[in-house]
Design a protein that fits this description.
- With 244 residues, the protein is α+β, with helices and mostly antiparallel strands.
- It folds into two domains: 108 residues, Diaminopimelate Epimerase, Chain A, domain 1 (Roll); 116 residues, Diaminopimelate Epimerase, Chain A, domain 1 (Roll), CATH 3.10.310.
- Helix content is 19%, strand content 45%.
- Strands 1-2-3-4-5-6-7-17 form an eight-stranded mixed beta barrel.
- Strand 6 and strand 7 form a beta hairpin.
- The longest helix is centred in the first third of the chain and has 13 residues.
- The model has no long low-confidence stretch (mean pLDDT 95).
Length: 244
């Protein structure tokens, strides 16, 4: 893997480099174990043409993931900086489809799929949550105190119920006001991470569609803030991308 870099998309850390052919799960695990930073995933970028690249993404345990929005944003920044594309608005070909990205210095915006959610609540002990999907599955639970909540224990309870046999990304959230949501996430195949772009999409879409928050709102993660908005029936997510 040549010309690799450590990048962070709002607290999600990735090892990023140019695609040079297929890799095995063992190779991914070896890259993660040798990394200088704790990384949530490994990303390979395959240049396609002057205005598109293809993203190959792996969780840090070597498993595939359908969508990693913060990873897409790192792909966009790396592609610009390494002259894989000639314009600052271009297409990243991800497992869920072609996503348009716009790079403005360290801020990267993605035009994303719009999640779906189920009206029926799912009960887990004393909690009830909402299932949402945006290429990958999410389970969202509102809590009173995001910072002090035992997320790992709740994830174990969800896992033991076997409601999601293929695993699920577990989000807990707290509505601060109609423009700010505080959240934490436990991602399948990774563990607790500092942010989750696809989780932010699911929470924002659900809470906006059920009139609990306004359009143009922020999801506040331990790793930083993500800004989300609907415009002309399209959903956009933006945030900072930096090199570590």
């Amino acid at each position: 893997m040549s010309n690799f870099a450590y990048m962070s998309g709002t607290g999600n850390n990735f090892l990023v480099g140019k695609y040079e052919g297929g890799v095995s799960e063992i190779q991914i695990i070896a890259l993660v174990s040798d990394a200088e930073y704790d990384v949530d995933g490994v990303i390979f970028i395959e240049p396609v043409d002057s205005n598109s690249v293809k993203m190959h993404y792996y969780n840090n345990d070597g498993s595939d993931a359908e969508l990693c929005v913060n990873g897409v944003r790192c792909v966009a920044k790396y592609s610009i900086d390494n002259n894989f594309v000639e314009v600052n608005r271009f297409i990243v070909k991800a497992p869920v489809g072609d996503l348009e990205v716009t790079v403005d210095d360290n801020t990267v915006e993605v035009s994303t799929p719009i999640p779906t959610f189920e009206d029926a609540k799912i009960k887990i002990n004393n909690f009830e949550g909402t299932k949402s999907t945006v290429g990958n599955p999410h389970f969202m639970i509102e809590v009173d105190d995001v910072d002090g909540f035992d997320l790992e224990n709740l994830n174990s309870e969800v896992y033991n119920k076997n409601i999601f046999p293929d695993g699920v990304n577990l989000e807990i959230y707290q509505i601060i006001n109609r423009n700010y949501i505080k959240a934490r996430v436990y991602e399948r195949g990774v563990g607790e991470t500092d942010a989750c772009g696809s989780g932010a999409l699911c929470m924002f879409n659900y809470l906006n569609k059920t009139d609990q928050i306004n359009n143009k709102s922020f999801v506040i993660y331990p790793g930083g803030d993500l800004y989300l908005r609907f415009e002309n029936n399209n959903l956009y997510l933006s945030g900072e991308v930096i090199y570590l």
